[in-house]
TrEMBL record:
It is found in: Cytoplasm. Residues 131-431 form the Aminoacyl-transfer RNA synthetases class-II family profile domain. Residues 186-189 are annotated as: Aspartate. It catalyses: tRNA(Asp) + L-aspartate + ATP = L-aspartyl-tRNA(Asp) + AMP + diphosphate. NCBIfam families: aspS_nondisc (TIGR00458), PRK05159.1 (NF003483). The gene is aspS. InterPro entries: Aa-tRNA-synt_II, aa-tRNA-synth_II, aa-tRNA-synth_II/BPL/LPL, Asp-tRNA_synthase_2, Asp/Asn-tRNA-synth_IIb, NA-bd_OB-fold, NA-bd_OB_tRNA. It is an enzyme of class 6 (ligase). One of its GO terms (molecular function) is aspartate-tRNA(Asn) ligase activity. It comes from the Bacteria. This is Aspartate--tRNA ligase.
Length: 431
């Protein structure tokens, strides 16, 4: 063996006749008479390795990590048209007895068990595909925004105030003070717009002390946050969100067809997104579905019905719900000019579930202070945020998308935990 440089499985069909070293996990071993067949897996695919004579005497547990050396030969017995005639096999790390059988095409194991043994379950083709797609999804999101002149920012997750109001903030001791884990980067992304960047985005964890264990809430999730300055109106913000999603959907489709096939997911082209006001949505719920809505919002059931409604009527998986009342939107939300009881805000529903909140923000200091007071909040407690408006921040708006929430919907997963490698919920702090 001249060199022991590792070759990847995806490169093997170009190296037929060559002696190579491969490293990976043992997906399966089976014996056929005197010959052993080892199915090797690395991050690029699977390769059949043929073990004869003394190589076949080595005892190896499935999912162990091995290094195999041998000659690549052409074959018509495997999908990639190549197999390895093994001359040497080394076990680099031995796997223990596995808690469930990982090599089935479809795992018949409960979600909790899969999450408890995450390093193992993530190796399964269908589970692995979710996170490969998630990674490409985020790359597409980043690429599009940077092409559009956005700067990627990083803002603190240890904060002195919750930005979204409500009780769902985690509090902890920060030396001699009390501090919070950021519920959203809202204040900081607005400040960065004002800091001269005009257009910013952040991809980072946010924390919500939700006490209910629902199938669509986590206590830590990744927020895809966007904020843009010098806008004329909230329509521009919705347009930007539509365009970024159109780009990302196409981007993933072009790069992850294999993984989409594994998950049996078809990604349709995203066209126009219909819009309706919250009042219209609530009227539809009342008239068509005989459902009442909570004051100034939609509940989970309502989101589902509206999702069905737009699918039937417009063939769309998405719908923007606009003009939420001031009472149910945060203090920084821009009131609507024609009807100041309403706001220039929106949610985006995808397959009957909210994936985004967004809107135009108040950009004048005096109006912002008044809005805090109207909400019964003391502006002095938000001084650092409010003071930044003294240096003049342009008209601006933005939105936040929950990454795990959109991936769950994108891939038709039944539970948001499936879209998180290591989910945090009320009961789960490990692994
Ligand atoms: P919901 O009504 O679904 O609880 P929210 O109105 O509290 O959401 P926002 O504060 O508007 O959510 O957050 C914006 C987006 O962040 C949501 O549309 C969703 O995609 C995501 N999100 C919010 N809370 C959670 C959570 N606990 N777990 C996962 N994603 C979340």
């Amino acid at each position: 063996m001249e060199s022991s440089k590792r070759v990847l499985i995806s490169e093997c069909n170009m190296l037929i006749g060559k002696e190579v070293v491969l490293k990976g996990w043992v997906k399966k071993i089976r014996q056929l008479g005197k010959v052993g067949f080892l199915l090797l897996r690395d991050r690029t695919g699977l390769l059949q390795c043929v073990l004869e004579q003394e190589q076949n005497q080595v005892k190896i547990e499935t999912e162990s990590v091995v290094q195999v050396t041998g000659i690549l030969v052409k074959t018509d017995k495997t999908a990639n048209g190549v197999e390895l005639q093994v001359s040497e096999i080394l076990v680099l790390a031995e796997a223990d007895l596995l808690p469930f059988e990982i090599n089935k095409k479809k795992l018949n194991v409960g979600l909790d068990h899969l999450l408890n043994h995450r390093v193992l379950s993530l190796r399964h083709e269908q589970i692995n595909a979710i996170f490969t797609i998630q990674s490409v999804f985020v790359k597409g999101f980043t690429d599009f925004l940077m092409q559009e002149g956005f700067t990627r920012i990083f803002t603190p997750k240890i904060v002195s105030q919750g930005a979204e109001g409500g009780a769902n903030v985690f509090t902890f001791n920060y030396f001699d003070k009390s501090a919070y884990l950021a519920q959203s980067p809202q204040f900081y992304k607005q400040m960065m717009v004002g800091a001269g960047f005009e257009r910013v985005f952040e991809i980072a964890p946010v924390y919500r002390a939700e006490e209910h264990n629902s199938s669509r809430h986590l206590n830590e999730y990744i927020s895809l946050d966007v904020e843009m300055g010098f806008i004329e109106n909230v329509e521009e913000v919705m347009e930007m969100e539509k365009r970024v999603l159109q780009y990302v959907f196409q981007y993933v489709k072009e790069r992850c067809q294999k993984q989409l096939d594994v998950l049996q997911v078809d990604i349709p082209v995203l066209n126009e997104i219909p819009k309706m006001t919250l009042a219209e949505a609530q009227a539809i719920l009342k008239e068509t579905y005989q459902k009442d809505s909570p004051e100034g919002d939609l509940n989970t059931e309502g989101e589902k019905c509206i999702g069905n409604y737009v699918k039937d009527k417009y063939g769309s998986d998405f719908v923007f719900i606009t003009n939420y009342p001031r009472a149910t939107r945060p203090m920084y939300t821009m009131p609507n000019k024609e009807n100041p009881e309403l706001t220039d805000s929106f949610d985006l529903l995808y397959k009957g579930s909210e994936i985004t909140s967004g809107g135009q923000r108040i950009h004048r200091k005096g109006e912002l202070i008044a809005s805090f007071r109207e909400k019964g909040l003391n502006p002095n407690e938000f001084k650092a945020y409010i003071d930044s408006f003294a240096y003049a921040i342009p008209p601006h708006g933005g939105f936040g998308i929950g990454l795990e929430r959109i991936i769950m919907k994108f891939l038709n997963l039944g539970n948001i935990r499936e879209a998180s490698a290591f989910p945090r919920d009320c009961d789960r702090l490990i692994p």
